[in-house]
Amino acid sequence: RLEDAIEARLGADVFTPGDQAGGPRSIELADGLRLFVLDTAWWLLDADERPAGEFDGENVRSPADVATYLEQQIDDRDDDRIIVVGHHPVRSNGAYAGYRTPAQTVASLGLGPLIGQTTGTSVQDLASERYREMRGVLDNLFTQHDRLVYVSAHDRALETFDVVRSEINRQTYLVSGTGGGRASAAAHGRGAAHVL
Fold first, then answer.
1. Largest Cα–Cα distance of the chain, in whole Å?
2. Tens-place pLDDT, residues 129-162
């Protein structure tokens, strides 16, 4: 509803991927540099709450549809440098991944981080079933493309994960979820190259 109201007011399609449901929307940023945009919040909705969309004339009704179309698009442009953007991170050491400051851990008697890292308390937590499925699908797809960069937000942290799968296959995962505000604590280690 907010998207419709803002676009009606501005008289233009300013949100992406827009009415393509979960995406992907492909944007050429420069010669040899391609951006793909996903609506990861769409993936985490209950199936009956997800609005249907279209991609190249095909119906988009499920996360599997989005993954199929994203894979096709990336495969068609595998010579390009690929950046994929989605709100929700595939990797994170922040609060949504169940990592808390020592004071937060003590305040929750240690149960908060344990629950956050194992099952999650909401669909927005990386450990929730639906979120784990999305992360697995995207990470599996990304592993097939050397030098792919995935940029996300969601966790109020600044993190970089450089994943080297082999000498010729590496991906970078960035989390920049501060929205201009203060970053929350994120755990060091667990694959993070940088945590601020």
1. 53
2. 898 999 999 999 999 999 999 999 888 788 888 9
